[in-house]
Design a protein that fits this description.
- It comes from Hydrogenophaga aromaticivorans.
- Pfam families: Acetyltransf_1.
- InterPro entries: Acyl_CoA_acyltransferase, GNAT_dom, NSI-like.
- One of its GO terms (molecular function) is N-acetyltransferase activity.
- This is GNAT family N-acetyltransferase.
- By secondary structure, this protein is an alpha+beta fold.
- It has a single domain, classed as Gcn5-related N-acetyltransferase (GNAT) (Aminopeptidase, 3-Layer(aba) Sandwich).
- It is built from 5 helices and 5 strands; from the N terminus they run βααβββαβαα.
- It has a 5-stranded mixed sheet.
- Strand 4, helix 3 and strand 5 form a beta-alpha-beta unit.
- Helix 1 packs across helix 2.
- It is globular, with a radius of gyration of 15 Å.
Length: 143
Amino acid sequence: MKLAWSDSIDNLDWSELAALYRAAPLGNKLPATLQVAFTNSMFRCFVRENGVLVGVGRALADGTDCSYICDVAVMPSHQGTGLGKAIVAKLLALSAGHKKIILYAVPGKEPFYKKFGFRRMRTAMAIFENQALAAERGYIDEP
């Protein structure tokens, strides 16, 4: 598997990225929404195989205190190959020097992230656009 890594959003096909998110599955995110999110992220990883986008990840960071790793997505055909692990490792390396590195995971994926040194936070809280759906999917406790 010959992979090409990039952090550039120049000439990125945002519709292709949205298709990857649907396939991963990480939800139905609009291309315009993804363009804003990735443009505003300090760190980005795009991984292509034979020109096809097969993995991505990003981190919002302030350069010193906090880096938030989010939206790691891998095509189902490449899941289980170590690509997701490599993307997280790259984002962690880029985030080195921050006092804290945070992420939230799809419920059930915590053991994967624990291998990198992540630990469950006791004080993390969130407000989701759709609180009921977030509770249904296991991201937050019921009120």
